[in-house]
Design goal:
The protein is α+β, with helices and mostly antiparallel strands. Helices cover 32% and strands 30% of the residues. It has one domain: Nucleoside Triphosphate Pyrophosphohydrolase (Alpha-Beta Complex). Strands 1, 4, 5, 6 and 9 form a five-stranded mixed sheet that branches. Helix 1 packs antiparallel against helix 2.
Length: 193
């Protein structure tokens, strides 16, 4: 579980942007302490809460965000996915971005440090013919840059659209009220700092 403890150190050193992040950071650290031996939070075998990684992908001018139309949530969304045992969540975020959008060249911003953290609720749903119970995603977000000229493609089993969205329109294209009001707005503001 050395990898999990290295992840814990990264989360401990992260400076929260707001009260949501401060509280979520504390809960994430407790989850690592509670689950580390019996219900590894780096894998989906932990049916209560497990780590995921997301990307806030901006263009060079910091005016647009690359988003996918997520099939399960039926909404335009950021890219990301489950850690599936990988403790290097930046690596996970980049892998998921490439798989979900087809981009090849990714520039890591913010020195590769955690850009944002949040605990996301996931309602029960069917995935690949199996029911997945409601649970929590312990999510770390990374700031990445992609050239707008990169060729984009969808990943049919996960999304049905990929496009650049002007930052000021992100809230308009998302159907996920809590995420667009509390997370996407925060990510856009943080990009401006």
């Amino acid at each position: 579980m050395k990898d999990l403890w290295e992840l814990k150190e990264k989360i401990e050193s992260y400076k929260p942007y707001n009260q949501q992040e401060e509280r979520d950071k504390q809960v994430m650290l407790k989850c690592i302490d509670i689950f580390d031996k019996f219900h590894n939070p780096l894998t989906r075998e932990n049916e209560f809460a497990h780590f995921t990684a997301s990307s806030w992908v901006v263009n060079k001018e910091r005016t647009k965000v690359l988003m996918i139309y997520h099939n399960i949530y039926q909404s335009w969304s950021w890219t990301g996915g489950h850690s599936d045992g990988e403790a290097d969540l930046l690596k996970v975020a980049i892998k998921e971005l490439k798989e979900e959008t087809g981009v090849q060249k990714v520039k890591v911003l913010n020195n590769g440090n955690i850009f944002s953290l949040e605990i996301l609720t996931v309602d029960g749903h069917v995935k690949r013919g199996n029911y997945v119970s409601s649970h929590l995603h312990l999510n770390l977000t990374y700031l990445l840059e992609v050239d707008e000229k990169e060729t984009l493609h969808i990943k049919e089993d996960e999304n049905s659209g990929v496009k650049w969205v002007p930052m000021e329109e992100v809230k308009d294209v998302s159907n996920e009220t809590w995420i667009k009001e509390n997370i996407y707005t925060k990510l856009n503001r943080t990009c401006e700092i």
